[in-house]
């Protein structure tokens, strides 16, 4: 019985370093660019095809081709995905910038006077406080990433695949 839980812990610690997680991260980091490009009216017709190509980065069945006419669905998707794409891309982009800072903080500020920093007055307290988010987000981040990209692909599947879906839902 305990072997099953140990195996589960191994998968938990391997998850941030898998190809699936890196592909989801690429999908999330491309979200703001896709959202802005889809919002341009000239690209609204081709935007659905670009989004279906980007959705292939996330594991799962591919998006089927849209019903004709495709441009209303693409325009509706552009309006619906703009806020979510910008939010997801900004959040995970910021996380990618902060993770190296959190990890390197104890090394970069080794021996400096950190009495005025958060976590001070000791160096150990300041270094621990600035390093603490790194392991948490390294192992919680992939789960948040899976949740965010699954929601975005679900939105794309709802708007850009066959079926009777309108902008109102």
Automatic annotation (TrEMBL):
Which parts pass through the membrane? 25-46, 77-103, 123-145
| Protein name (Swiss-Prot/TrEMBL) | Sensor domain-containing protein
- Keyword terms: Membrane, Transmembrane, Transmembrane helix
Query: Which organism encodes this protein?
Result: Phytohabitans houttuyneae
